[in-house]
Structure formats: C-alpha cells, structure tokens
C-alpha cells in the first residue's frame, strides 16, 4: 500500500522544501494543501482517517508546516481534535523547519558540552526556529535569554514558550549589533536565529569574548548571521570557541527531518513535535 503524506501548510502555498524532504523521507506521494486553518482543516483530516482499514492507517500521515509557529500549533490541535480511537494517523509539526532545525542545533551543542547551568543567548529569537531553540536549551537546564529588536516581541515569544513548554526564558531588547554584543557579554552559548541577509554580530564583537564557548549560526545565506563564521563550519575552533555554520549542522537537520518522515509510517498513533524530534536528534547527533 502506498505511503501517503498530506502536507498541511498554514501559508498559501505549501513549502517546496518540505515536499522534497517528504519524498526523501520515504513517502510515495506527498499531497500539499495550503492556506489551512483550524476552521477549514476538518474535512481533510476526515479523508485521512476514514479511508483505510486500521492495519493500514500507518501508511497515511500528516505533516504540518508554514511560516507561523503559533498557527502551526493551532492547526496541530485542530487535527488532533478530529482523532478518536481507531481513527487517527501519525502527525508531525515542523513550522518553518523550526523543530528539526532547533532539535539538530541543540542536540549538536549538547553532544559537545554540558548545557545545564550555562547562559545561552538566542539572537533574533522571536521566529519559529529561535523560539524552539530557546525552549529546548531551557529544557536542557540552560539559563536562556532571547533577544529581539522590539521588547514586546521578545516578551510575547518567551510567554508562548512558557505556555507550551513550561520553561522560563528571559526577554531582551537588542535593536542593533552593539546591544547584541552587550547581551552576549557573559554568555557561554550563542545561537543566531535571525532572518537571512542580516548580520547580528560582527566578528570582532565575539572573537575576544573570554566567556563564549559555543556559537551556532542558523543563517545559510550570506552574509552570515554571526560575522567570522562560515556556513560550512562544523564544530571547528575559531578564536578559542567551537562554532557551527548553518550547513555545518544542517546536515543533521536534514537527516532528522527525513528520519521523522520515515518514522511517521511505522504506526498511526505518533505525534512528532519538539520533544519527540529532539529525542531522535540526540540519538543521531
């Protein structure tokens, strides 16, 4: 029986990236639907759960994507609300690649150092990736700070992660490179999660910092989010710190994404969200 992956996207057009990885992860067919909301997703979910007999439901799965994490969380809740015993399929949430990217990044950091008790700063962390990185770092016992150009956006992101994960993350306003340099002054871990094309730190703003141990930049497009880091850096030492560029840890991100897709088709009762994806990433790191 064919393995069918239904790509439910909160954006108007389903992400091509997620479609490609869906096939690479083992789906026989990936069927994309865009512009989905909790109000209109119901009939699509019905189609996934009422068509195949119980022993074959594992061959149908749902992937939830889109650029908005809160919208993705709401869509996941709406999908799960339609399930009942004997009528459900496995589902994965990865809005904007946030869970797989964050899981791969934090698992890589955890493999190289103890995270508990260390100060971690997530630069430009209000997007899906930054929020999930901050949450996973906090769950590992780090003292996490999240920056934004606007304080209220940082506060909102921290509150959202507290509601979802029960973690305490400290919001910081950092509107320019100088403010971000100040934010990382006594940090041991720095993760840059800003938009493509924006340099959040210049090289000289971190290279001589005696406290920083680990740096990771999630921006694969030039210029780098952290100056002086190459996108291909993979756990190399620069100025006494261990650094990763986006492609350097992105290999694990893609491997985790593909592995999650494959896992969806092993049973019909799984929900793969940040915690489950991180557990898989730790095993693969």
Please describe the topology of this protein.
Elements: E1 4-9, H1 16-24, E2 29-33, H2 42-49, E3 60-65, H3 69-81, E4 90-93, H4 98-112, E5 119-123, H5 128-139, E6 143-148, H6 151-165, E7 170-173, H7 177-183, E8 189-192, E9 214-217, E10 234-238, E11 241-244, H8 246-264, E12 271-272, H9 274-284
Parallel strand pairs: 1-2, 1-3, 3-4, 4-12, 5-6, 5-8, 6-7, 8-9, 9-11
Antiparallel strand pairs: 10-11
Helix pairs in contact: 4-5, 4-8, 4-9, 5-6, 8-9
Give an overview of the whole structure.
The structure is a single chain. The chain is α/β, with parallel strands linked by helices and 285 residues long. It folds into two domains: 90 residues, Rossmann fold (3-Layer(aba) Sandwich), CATH 3.40.50; 152 residues, NAD(P)-binding Rossmann-like Domain (Rossmann fold, 3-Layer(aba) Sandwich), CATH 3.40.50.720. Helices cover 38% and strands 19% of the residues. It is built from nine helices and twelve strands. The protein has a seven-stranded mixed β-sheet with strand order 7-6-5-8-9-11-10, with helices on both faces. Helix 4 runs parallel beside helix 5 and helix 8 packs across helix 9. The longest helix has 19 residues. The chain is elongated, with a radius of gyration of 19 Å. The two termini are 32 Å apart. The mean pLDDT is 97.
